[in-house]
Write a structure and sequence with these properties.
The structure is a single chain. This protein is α+β, with helices and mostly antiparallel strands. Helix content is 38%, strand content 13%. The chain is built from 24 helices and 17 strands. The longest helix has 21 residues. The chain binds iron/sulfur cluster. The site of iron/sulfur cluster has 13 residues, from loops.
């Protein structure tokens, strides 16, 4: 493994850190290895935005090779949104470039006295002033740094205004609008006065057995190209299944209070294709190319929205206009704010306005009416700048609900706003949201795809009805382990790579002799370590819950009958049993931790 660059932003000291071989053997890389790296720093007394709080950018052992969907990196630390473990991964080209520059990760601590950025190039790193960049949006920052460095192709990961103002859902953006969106890692960067990290590398990404790896990755990409999910994603993007999700009642509308819309949806993949789509985009070496490129009235090509943004600024707010969604997505990207959290928090504001708990006196005169695009845009600008009512929105949905005496109306788990996959339409998401280490996350396990048929039997998974209850708990745990493995490789979940294919790639890239069971155990190890970290940060069994709106039936189910909400308590009971966790505390038992080589976490977990 290549070294990790370690930077103390307070003193400006830059060193290199070598990861012990036993750690890479147990955790591979990515988010799991970052959790091991940061385990000792995840102290309750160390606030997420404090100067000493660590922030780690990490790649995986396949990142930057020419394997399938290997262009991603992950950013990890303590989340200002949840106060718990934070991780957010991002596509594009930045992660591969870092590895080509000779580093597998960057470990940041401290706080700079003035805004700065880090410049990493071919085994060297230096700190440069970012005073002139402070206040620029994310795209402007990329351009300004590229111009200043004048070094040809430079990849830049940066924050915008929202990161500077430390909004707890501030993101980090790189390349053509690829983002590390969730859990507020952009705010942690902002709190360190770190505007950006620019990287450039000309080296070769190391794999331990190149002659074994090369044919395997060619075969993996050939298989991936022919996969049905790949074809949908390339043709229609991540919202390709939008109409189907809508039919299942899995796509939220009117802030999770309406199960179905009668009118034709224009914010689906097909809707985009019929209107503004002008091309596709891909991350490093990716044969899927799920990214959308659209052209609006000004004639300029720009990033098209993906599923979460389309639903968040679409049916969630009773809007249905792909042009408007594209514009709101771009404004959020430029400010550096996560579109899921932003649109969810706006949805809550609309809901509380309708309930009479928020009035025009609170909003500075804005009447928050469903389907009003003007209010939505105004609220986004106010939030990023922490102006007017936006100062309240800028604390996220949980805090907004609390402020107006209605925290239970906020559709969030542990401070992270729920993504746009409703557990009443795909019940596995109930457990996924309730137990994810980073709050209501749909990427720690995209179980909604399992609920519609993407069942991997070679992992020991079975098929269950999309509305099944406790009987699917063990299945959910397996899928979470599988996706935790993906997150330690920092692979994209949209790449439907078969387990035996991935096994060959891991073994040849890392010099291992693993089985599929070993891969799943590595995933389980990462999941349990993050749980132990969260336990240490104060998470208890009580935190494994869903917000009230998701535990109520829809009144307008598309199937013509009331759709019962998931029975979360019985699902959790079965889940703890499947995980080997204490059913009362919800903590991994010492025996479980020992079995996973996590003895070091026993005392404090
Ligand atoms: S599937 Fe999409 S998000 Fe994933 S690596 Fe490929 S282009 Fe990037």
């Amino acid at each position: 493994m290549q070294p990790i660059l370690k930077v103390d932003l307070t003193s400006g000291k830059i060193t290199e850190f070598s990861i012990p071989k036993t750690w890479t053997n147990d955790f591979l890389g990515g988010a799991s290895l970052a959790a091991r790296l940061l385990y000792d720093s995840m102290e309750p007394s160390l606030a997420p935005l404090s100067p000493q709080a660590p922030l780690v950018f990490m790649t995986g052992p396949l990142t930057g090779t020419s394997g399938p969907t290997v262009g991603r990196f992950v950013v990890c630390g303590r989340s200002p949104a949840t106060g718990l473990w934070g991780e957010s991964n991002c596509g594009g080209f930045w992660g591969p470039e870092l590895r080509m520059a000779g580093y597998d990760g960057i470990w940041l601590e401290g706080r700079a006295a003035e805004p700065l950025y880090l410049w990493v190039q071919d085994g060297k790193a230096e700190i440069r002033s970012a005073k002139s960049l402070w206040g620029l949006d994310t795209y402007q920052t990329q351009e300004a740094i590229q111009e200043e460095l004048g070094a040809g192709k430079v990849r830049v990961a940066s924050i915008g205004t929202a990161g500077e103002t430390q909004i707890p859902f501030a993101l980090i953006l790189c390349d053509h609008g690829r983002v590390a969106g969730r859990t507020g890692m952009g705010a942690v960067m902002g709190a360190k006065n770190l505007k950006a990290i620019a990287v450039q590398g000309h080296g070769k990404v190391p794999v331990l057995d190149p002659s074994g790896f090369s044919p395997l990755r060619s075969e993996a990409n050939r298989l991936l190209r022919g996969d049905a999910l790949t074809q949908v994603l390339r043709e229609l993007g991540t919202s390709g299944a939008g109409d189907y999700f809508n039919y299942l009642g899995e796509m939220p509308k009117r802030y999770f209070h309406q199960g179905h819309v009668e009118e034709e949806l224009h914010i689906t993949g097909a809707g985009l294709k019929d209107t503004i789509l002008s091309g596709v985009s891909a991350c490093h070496a990716c044969v899927v190319a799920c990214g959308r490129v659209v052209r609006l009235e000004d004639g300029e090509k720009r990033k098209g929205p993906e599923y979460e943004t389309l639903v968040g600024f679409g049916p969630n707010l009773l809007l249905n206009d792909p042009v408007f969604v594209t514009q709101m997505g771009e404004i959020c990207d430029r400010y550096g704010m996560d579109t899921i959290s932003m649109s969810n928090t706006i949805g809550l504001a609309f809901q509380l306005f309708e309930m009479g708990l928020i009035t025009a006196a609170d909003t500075g005169g804005l009447n928050l009416k469903w389907g009003d695009p003007g209010s939505v845009e105004a609220l986004i600008h106010q939030t990023a700048r922490r102006e007017g009512f936006g100062a309240a929105l800028g604390e996220g949905a949980r805090a907004l609900g609390r402020r107006f005496g209605a925290e239970e109306e906020a559709v969030q788990v542990n401070g992270l706003e729920v993504a746009y996959h409703d557990p009443r339409g795909a019940s596995g998401m109930a457990l996924v949201y309730a137990t994810s280490p980073r709050g209501a996350c749909h990427n720690q396990s995209d179980y909604f795809l399992v609920d519609v048929g993407q069942v991997e039997t070679s992992l020991g998974m079975s098929s269950y009805d999309p509305h099944a209850g406790a009987e699917k708990a063990a299945n959910v745990a397996i899928h979470q382990n599988w996706r935790t493995l993906f997150n330690s490789l920092v692979l994209c979940v949209f790449g439907n790579v078969a387990p035996d294919t991935l096994l060959g790639l891991i073994n040849s890239a890392c010099g291992l002799d693993w089985s599929i069971e070993d891969m799943l155990r590595a995933g389980e190890r990462g999941w349990n370590l993050k749980r132990a970290i969260n336990n240490r940060l104060g998470l208890t069994r009580w935190n494994d819950r869903l917000p009230k709106p998701l535990l109520q039936p829809y009144i307008d189910d598309p199937m013509g009958e009331e759709m019962p909400p998931p029975d979360l308590n019985s699902m959790l009971e079965a889940y703890y049993s499947a995980r080997g966790w204490d059913p009362v505390s919800g903590r991994p038992t010492p025996e479980k931790l020992r079995k996973l080589n996590l003895e070091f976490a026993i005392r404090q977990s």
